[in-house]
Amino acid sequence: SIPAYELIRKRVETADVNGGDETGMRINGQKVWFWTLQGKLFTFIIASLNRGGETIYQHFPNGFAFSVLVHDCWRCYFKVAAVAHQICLAHLLREFKHVSECYKLKWATDFKQLLVETIAFKKTLLPTDYHKTLIQRTEFEERLTKLLEETIDKKHPIAVSLQNRLLKYRQHLFTFLYYHQVPPDNNASEQAIRNVKVKQKISGQFKSFQG
Questions:
Q1: This prediction's pTM
Q2: What pLDDT is attached to residue 97?
Q3: Distance separating alpha carbons of residues 71 and 36, to the nearest angstrom
Q4: 3-state class of 62 per DSSP?
Q5: Among 25, 41, 92, 109, which residue has the least CB neighbours within 10 Å?
């Protein structure tokens, strides 16, 4: 099994897209983290005591020289060298839904609509379109800039916090509109690591790291 594991690790290193996710688990009563890096033809899973970037650095010390890394906003992912990053828009849509429920802000509704439109637009693009100047893509970028610059009342702290985070990671929001193979979410990674949660639900834990 070790050669196969190493073979998959090398596939991760040279993939053009890697989706990342992590989830908590227990091994013999101890809290650990299971990480996955996933592509269309492979799933690589790591059991680790650490939820920080050290886990990725240990297995991929050179980062991902050929890969766009798709993930949520967990900050350690941004410290990993990659061709580019894509933040999971499915996560953001859920956050904007929560903001809308809390405050009824038009800003949140407009932002959510923008993300939905970009995802739909992605589905209309041909592989050859990504290297062209696309008017609609430019318009999406302009709308994004306006929404990130819009003043939000401080009495809406959840919305302010979300806007500040997106300002910080603005360059990673629409990566999927520039790369044909990059999805707008890391749903496939969440599905790839789901068996770990099934194991937890049925057995409660693993008995050892080797197991």
A1: 0.90
A2: 95
A3: 11
A4: coil
A5: 41
Q: What DSSP state is assigned to residue 129?
A: G
- What's the number of CA atoms in the CB half-sphere (13 Å) around residue 97? 7
- Helix (H) / strand (E) containing 152: none
pLDDT digits over 105-133, tens only?
Answer: 999 999 999 999 999 999 999 999 999 99
Q: How many CA atoms lie within 13 A of 188 on its CB side?
A: 17
CA distances from 198 to 41, 63, 186, 193, 204 (A): 22, 30, 19, 9, 9
**Encoded tokens for 196:** 């770990």
Query: What is the Cα Rg of the chain in Å?
Result: 19
Mean pLDDT across 134-147:
98
User: Which residues are registered as beta bridge partners of 32?
Assistant: 25
| pLDDT band at residue 1 under the 50/70/90 scheme | low
Half-sphere exposure at residue 93, Cβ-oriented, CA atoms within 13 angstroms: 14
Which are the contacts of 97, defined by CB distance < 8 A and separation ≥ 6?
A: 112
HSE-CB for 132 with a 13 A CA cutoff? 8
**8: number of CA atoms within 13 Å, CB side?**
15
Task: Give strand pairing partners of 68.
Answer: 17, 84
